[in-house]
Structure formats: structure tokens, C-alpha cells
Amino acid sequence: MKRFKAITVSIISASLMFSLAGCGGTSAEPDAAGTADTAETAEESSDSVYRTLDEIVEDGTINIGVFSDKNPFGYVDENGDYQGYDVYFANRIAEDMGVDVNFVSTEAANRIEYLQTGKVDLILANFTVTPERAEEVDFALPYMNVALGVVSPDDKVIESLDDWNPDDEMIVISGTTAETYLVENYPDITLQKYDSYATAKNALENGNGAAWANDNTEVIAFSLQNEGYTVGIPSLGSQDTIAPAVSKGNDTLLNWINDEIVSLGEENFFHTDYEETLADTYGLDYEESLVVEGGKTTDAE
Amino acid sequence: MPDLGLEVLFKGKNMLRLLGGLWAALEISLISVLLSIPLGILLGIIMVRKELVLRVITRTYFEFIRIMPQLVLLFIVFFDSTKLFGINLSGELSSVIVFTLWGTAEMGDLVRGAITSIPKHQYESSLALGLNNAQTYFYVIIPQTVRRLLPLSVNLITRMIKTTSLVLLIGVVEVTKVAQQIIEANRTSSPNAAFGVYLTVFMMYFLTCWPLSILASRLEKKWG
């Protein structure tokens, strides 16, 4: 029995050492199993992870990462076809580039990885431009605005936060940009914080707060789906933008996309896109505040 | 009858898309199972050998795969193989690799457990009867091992089928992803669709795994 114990202990300690050492080289194991299939894909491994514009055109297919479950920006309809504001733009890019489009279903959490590994050429997945992300990928010109919005009941519409009644409270969802923004810029407004969309919605409907601040697309959709509420402030605070993104350093593709966005601006392409895909959800009233045409953001608030 | 939003399933090709998604999940799990079983048996036999080096290597492999969440393994194979080696594996192939690695490890441990659970007197009795080592294994040990192994490995297969829902995170559109797509596409027209669609997906998984569970419990009764 003693001998058995000694062996067990030595095995455990040895395997611990091995597994610690193994952490660095984890990919070697899967690699061994995959060798049979690496031959067919090896040709794609050049010096850079991405494909240049010429390589994409030559290949005849562009891989574009989009959301497949974010209606109305990128989703799949009942016939299995990709639809939405981002997808409409993606199809136009492929058309003008003269290539077919292969849509890749991405998640919010893996969009950067897809570009860093060159598994897609372009991401059009409602990608908000932030300084942190710009270090990992290259953003092209923007094609949509996102900002905060404030929705309030019809009988007491709040159109400005400057004359806020000190007795009123503002509903926010914890951890959202709306909360951060209000704490920084309007420290005098008392916040009522909720954990989820559903509880915040209930709070507004029960009159617990005077208004609800959230992403403007969310509050606009809410006011259109629920009667008796108006978005008094459709665009609050710093405007963020949504833009296409390519792998870091893929300048040929980036420049082509930028030129494309500018030239599409001449035909008001993104307004048509909005009317075709977003108008059902957000109505035509918000077209000007949401659409960015020709890559030019106007700070008209 | 509460409104489950089941009507979305009959819109366009939605039902076919769900079934296509189920097939995508089954394809990955079936290929992985077919590869895992022989590899796992081999691994299990190595794991019971007395050589220390072999034991340490197989044990390390087993513990590593078992400790790592499958999702992490999927990301390592799908993204890091490209980042580190420039090998561009498809989502489906990456999934098969990960599920085979995982299935082999788990199967290996089941085989190891089944072999070591055969009492020592079985070996000694057969040797005493004049059987040689190979005969002992072939006529006495392996038949008993297989009986103990079958129900356990059927359970492993059902676990592998259910875990395939993770592959949607590396871009493989399988049944759970199709369900999410259908729910989201009908968010405004059928807000309750989540209930109906997920209920359907539940039934699909159930109808796939249930026959396997029945098989496992039958085998257990027959041979257990």
C-alpha cells in the first residue's frame, strides 16, 4: 500500500509539472491530430494573416463577418438568407468589388479574433469604434452613429437634462454606457439602477422614474413598440460611430472600403439602406441622427 | 394553450434550417465519436500499462483535456492554430479535432477504469486454467471489459452530442445558432418565439439522445 501511494504521488507531481510546462505549447497537441488536413489549407499561410485587395479579387470571394442574430442589423431570414443594415452594405461592397460574398456568422466576443487570424477579410457586425479596439484592428470610415437616448412618458416628455427636476429619478441599466455618462456629466441626477432590460422596462412602465436612459437605438425601438412613450432626447453625449473593420495593416482593402464609402455617399446609399432595413424598427424620424453618409460625421445635436 | 410563437417554425424554410442545424451538430459528434472510440481504447490500454513514462504522458494528456473547458480548446484550435502556425482550419474541422481529443481522453479513462475493475482473481484463475496471456485477455478480460464499457460509452456519446452547442462560438451554424437566428429575426412579429423554438430544439436533442439512453440502460440491465 505504501509503495502504491508513493507511485501515485510521484505520478501526480510529474503530471502537474508536465501540464504547467504544457500550457505554453498547447496548440501542438491539436496540431498532431490535424496534420492530415493541414495540407489543403497550408497554401493560405503566407507572411501576413490577411488577404490584400488583389488576393480577394483574384480569389473571387470575400469573407465578411456579420451578426446572424442581431435584427435589424445582421440576421438570417426565414429562407436562410442574411439580411439587415450591415448585410445590405456588405452585399453592395461585394457587388462593386466584383466578387461573391461569403457571410461568416460572428459573435460580439470573437469579432477581433476573426480579423487577427484573417479568417474573415472584413467585419461588418455593428462594430462600435473605440480606441481600445482601434489598437487591434483597422477601422474604415463610419457608416452609422450610436449615441445615448432618453425615453419618457408622453405626458411629461423630457427633452433636455439641463433643467432636471431634483426630485425626479432617472432609470438606467447598471454597467451600460448610459450609467457611466450620466455619473460623469450629470452628477446631480439621481439614478435608479436596474440589472436587466426587463426590470428597467417595468420600472418605467410603473412610473418609478421620470425617464430611462439607454443606447438610443434601444430607447427608440422601445418607444415605437410601446405606446405612450416618446424619445425626448434621441442623441445624448458623445457620439460613437459604427464602422467596417479590417485586419491591422490591410491598407489596400481599407483604402478601397474608404473610397467606396465616400463614393456611395454621392448616391445617398446609406439612407436607402436605412429605409430598406431599419425604417421598420426605428421609423423614418431617426434617419438623420442614425445614418452617417459618405463617412462624414456631423456633430449636429 | 399559451402562445409559444410556434408559427415561426412554419415560415419559409425555418423547420428545414433547424433540421439542417441538427445535422451539422450530429455530423460533428458522429465523426468525433467514430474517431474517439478506437483512439480511446488504445489510450486506455496504454494507461493501464506499468511503464512510468507512458503513464505520465497519457495521464498528463488526460488531465489537461479534462481540466480545460471545451470552449477554451475550441478557441485554441480555431484561432491560435492560425495565430501561431498560420494553419487556417475551418470551424467544422476544428470542432471535430477538439471533440475527438476530448472524446479520446474520456473514452481512454473509461477503458482504463473498466480494465482495472476486473478483479485480479480473473487473471489468476485463467492463468491457472492454463491460458496464456493473450488468451486470458481475449477470452476472459476483454469480454468483461466491453460489457462494463458499453453503457458508459453510450453516455459519453450523448454528452458529446449535447456539448456541440458550443461550436456556434467558432462560427459553425448548428441547431442552437439557427434557433437564435429564428428567434431574433422574428423578435417584433413573434415575441414569444423563444419558448416555441427552444422547446423544439429541446425535443430534437431529446429525440436524438433518448434512444441512446434507452440503449445504455438496456445494456446495463442485460450485462450489468
Summarize the topology.
The complex is a heterodimer of chains A (301) and B (224).
Chain A: H1 2-22, H2 28-41, H3 53-59, E1 61-67, E2 69-70, E3 74-76, E4 82-83, H4 85-97, E5 100-106, H5 111-116, E6 122-123, H6 131-134, E7 137-139, E8 144-153, E9 169-173, H7 177-185, E10 190-194, H8 197-205, E11 211-215, H9 216-225, E12 229-242, E13 245-247, H10 251-266, H11 269-277, H12 279-282, H13 287-290
Parallel strand pairs in A: 1-5, 1-6, 9-10, 9-11
Antiparallel strand pairs in A: 2-3, 3-4, 6-13, 7-13, 8-11, 8-12
Chain B: H1 14-48, H2 52-67, H3 70-85, H4 91-116, H5 120-128, H6 133-163, H7 175-185, H8 193-223
Helix pairs in contact in B: 1-2, 1-4, 1-6, 1-7, 2-4, 3-4, 4-6, 5-6, 6-8, 7-8
Offer a few descriptive terms.
heterodimer; A: 301 residues; alpha/beta; D-Maltodextrin-Binding Protein, domain 2; 2 domains; 5-stranded mixed sheet; disordered N terminus; B: 224 residues; mainly alpha; MetI-like fold; 8 helices; 78% helix; elongated
Question: How would you portray this structure in words?
Answer:
The complex is a heterodimer of chains A (301) and B (224). With 301 residues, chain A is of the alpha/beta class. Chain A has two domains: 47-143 and 243-282, Periplasmic binding protein-like II (D-Maltodextrin-Binding Protein, domain 2, 3-Layer(aba) Sandwich), CATH 3.40.190.10; 146-239, 3-Layer(aba) Sandwich (D-Maltodextrin-Binding Protein, domain 2). Helices cover 42% and strands 23% of the residues of chain A. Chain A has 13 helices and 13 strands. Chain A has helices spanning 2-22, 28-41, 53-59, 85-97, 111-116, 131-134, 177-185, 197-205, 216-225, 251-266, 269-277, 279-282, 287-290, and strands spanning 61-67, 69-70, 74-76, 82-83, 100-106, 122-123, 137-139, 144-153, 169-173, 190-194, 211-215, 229-242, 245-247. In chain A, the strands form three sheets. Chain A has a five-stranded mixed sheet with strand order 5-1-6-13-7. A five-stranded mixed sheet of chain A has the order 10-9-11-8-12. In chain A, β2 and β3 form a beta hairpin. Chain A is elongated and about 65 Å long. Chain B has 224 residues and is mainly α. Chain B has one domain: Orthogonal Bundle (MetI-like fold), CATH 1.10.3720.10. Chain B has helices at residues 14-48, 52-67, 70-85, 91-116, 120-128, 133-163, 175-185, 193-223. In chain B, α5 packs antiparallel against α6. The radius of gyration of chain B is 22 Å and the shape is elongated. The model of chain B has no long low-confidence stretch (mean pLDDT 90). At the A-B interface, α1, α2, β2, β5 and α5 of A face α2, α3, α4 and α7 of B.
